[in-house]
Each structure stands twice: as structure tokens, then as C-alpha cells.
């Protein structure tokens, strides 16, 4: 993604849908092994994404694409 910088060492994924303020290119936490879904804590809610089975070419690497499924409140 031109102009988008994502730092860290976790696995990259592409997020489609969800809140417009979420970055499209997202880095999972180190050790994240469950690729059946991605959950992102965002402004007091868990944004849940499911795999599409598609990939995108990002900087020479194939990155899995996840589509927004639903959102739930974070329990206190």
C-alpha cells in the first residue's frame, strides 16, 4: 500500500470493511496462530473479520484478505 507504514514482526493481513478508521493493512500480534478469524479491539468493540480465501500482493508477498463479519462490545 503506497504511503502506508506498518511496523512490527507479526503476520500481515488485509482487512476489508469494518470501521473506516481501521487500517486496511493490519499486523497481527506475534504468536497469533488462529487464521480462521481476526479480532481487532477498536474503540470499546471487537471488530471481527473472517477469511475470504483470497490474497493480495503486498510488497512482493501474498497477504491473506479478511472481510468484516460483525462487531461486539468488549465486556468489562
Order of helices and strands: EEEEE
Profile the largest sheet. 5 strands, mixed
Sheet/helix structural class: mainly beta
Helix content: under 10%
Order of strands, main sheet, comes to: 2-1-5-4-3
Give Rg in angstroms: 12 Å
**How is the quaternary structure best described?**
single chain
What is the molecular shape? globular
Low-confidence stretches: 1-6
Give the N-to-C terminal Cα separation.
35 Å
Number of domains: 1
Strand content: over 45%
List the total number of helices. 0
Q: Give the integer mean of the pLDDT values.
A: 86
The tally of strands reads 5
Quick summary:
The chain is mostly beta strands. It is built from no helices and five strands. It has strands at residues 12-16, 25-27, 38-42, 45-58, 61-73.
What is the element layout, followed by pairings?
Layout lengths: L11 E5 L8 E3 L10 E5 L2 E14 L2 E13 L3
Parallel strand pairs: 1-5
Antiparallel strand pairs: 1-2, 3-4, 4-5
Molecular structure report:
The structure is a single chain. The protein has 76 residues and is mainly beta. The chain has one domain. Strands 2-1-5-4-3 form a 5-stranded mixed sheet, with no helix packed on it. A hairpin with a 2-residue loop joins strand 4 and strand 5. The protein starts with 11 loop residues before the first strand and ends with a strand. InterPro entries: DUF5988.
Amino acid at each position: 500500500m503506497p504511503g502506508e507504514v506498518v511496523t512490527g514482526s507479526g503476520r500481515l493481513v488485509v482487512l476489508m470493511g469494518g470501521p473506516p478508521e481501521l487500517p486496511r493493512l493490519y499486523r497481527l500480534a506475534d504468536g497469533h496462530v488462529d487464521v480462521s478469524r481476526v479480532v481487532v479491539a477498536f474503540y470499546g468493540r471487537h471488530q471481527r473479520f473472517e477469511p475470504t480465501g483470497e490474497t493480495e500482493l503486498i510488497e512482493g508477498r501474498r497477504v491473506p484478505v479478511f472481510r468484516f463479519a460483525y462487531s461486539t462490545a468488549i465486556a468489562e
